[in-house]
Amino acid sequence: MPETNPQQATASKREISARALVVLAVVAVLAYVADRISKILVVENLTLGQPVDVLGNLLQFHYVENPGAAFSLGSGSTWIFAIIAAVVAVFIIFFARRIRSTGWAVLFGLLLGGNLGNLTDRLTRPPGFGVGHVVDFLQVYGFPAIFNVADISIVSSMGLFILLTIRGVGLDGTRTPPKAKTSQPAADDESASSAQSPTDPA
Question: Which residues touch 130 (CB under 8 Å, ≥6 apart)?
Fold first, then answer.
């Protein structure tokens, strides 16, 4: 087999890593911009607390201000969620250089963009820095909470995490092969052969 040049292998890893970082950054920016633009349009054009039918009762725009986490969970602990969101964002930025899988890059890009979208609300909106209320406006029939584009990005990243984990895709892009099943009949035949006495008639 031809030998692999260590310099070429290192260059290839750097190229893959750079590509994953670009994917992560692009996805994060797109998720963040989509969230910010949607919230600006909602604040400027909708009335707080008044639902507007989009697809009948199936989908409504219902502008509310959420002091809690995603899907209005944990109201009253906004500053805690702001700190957690900041820590998550810093962790992703420092952890990103280890990612060489496009799938994982998309996952962390969605998580980072959505996380920064809601964090921006908590840092810039009333009633104050770190305790600002998040703009939520999407209401789906049968779903108990109102959410936003950032929440969709975060939940999508969790779904992608489950998918990549089930498929055995690692951060470096390699896939863990499924465990080979042991053939029971073959094992039984081997046991029978070993148990046969040398003095048994042919």
Answer: 78, 79, 82, 83, 122, 123
